[in-house]
Amino acid sequence: MNVQLFIPCFVDQLYPQTGMNMVKVLEKLGCNVSYNSKQTCCGQPAFNAGYREEARSVAHKFLNDFKENTYIVGPTGSCTGYIRNFYDKLFENSSEHNLCNQVQGNVYEFTEFITNILKQDKVGATLEGRATYHDACGALRECGIKAGPRRLLANVAGLELVEMAECETCCGFGGTFAVKYEPISIGMAQTKMKSAMETGAKYIITTDVSCMMHMQGYIDNNNLPLTTMHIADVLASGW
Known about the structure:
Blueprint: E1 2-5, H1 9-13, H2 16-28, E2 32-34, H3 44-48, H4 52-65, E3 71-74, H5 77-90, H6 97-106, E4 107-109, H7 110-117, E5 126-133, H8 137-143, H9 147-154, E6 157-161, H10 177-180, H11 182-197, E7 203-206, H12 209-221, E8 227-230, H13 231-235
Parallel strand pairs: 1-2, 1-3, 3-4, 5-6, 5-7, 7-8
């Protein structure tokens, strides 16, 4: 199965190993993965900040970078959810309307692709320790991803998955929200980490590195015995 690799900005700049581990897992599951090195941002930051024309310009490039009619897979529910739910608003009644619809239908978040398209729940990963799962807002609310990541983690040898009380509560990042409303953002991270700590978990696992970055910052600043992990890094562990 042919797959186009979509690497979001945070993965490209801060967590490249997560992208490599996603490729590792997809190839193990029989995918032929290609990467267009000319790809850039999907345009979500500009769109969320109200810069619609700038967002459309970036999205125009994205559409043409991924115009091949094959699956597009990325380690992010946030960017996937944005493309899937908002691109048609940028290109409504335009000459790119059909290409937009094609891309929207082809784009998948990593775990969603594994469980819904490849129909796999087990990849042979091993990771010792107790973990809890954070439902990233984009994955949960814009892509409807809930059970799939948990099924994958339940099949990781040595991993004990424990639900936290605030699993669906936002971690406080929210893109520019964390910059504009820093005290509220930090308070939300505090609530999330308190819930995670109550499970006795060593790891807090999620689908989005933006959440990881925000939560790990709070963890480091407060010397908490927790480590954030992207689910691609977990699924690539032990083999």
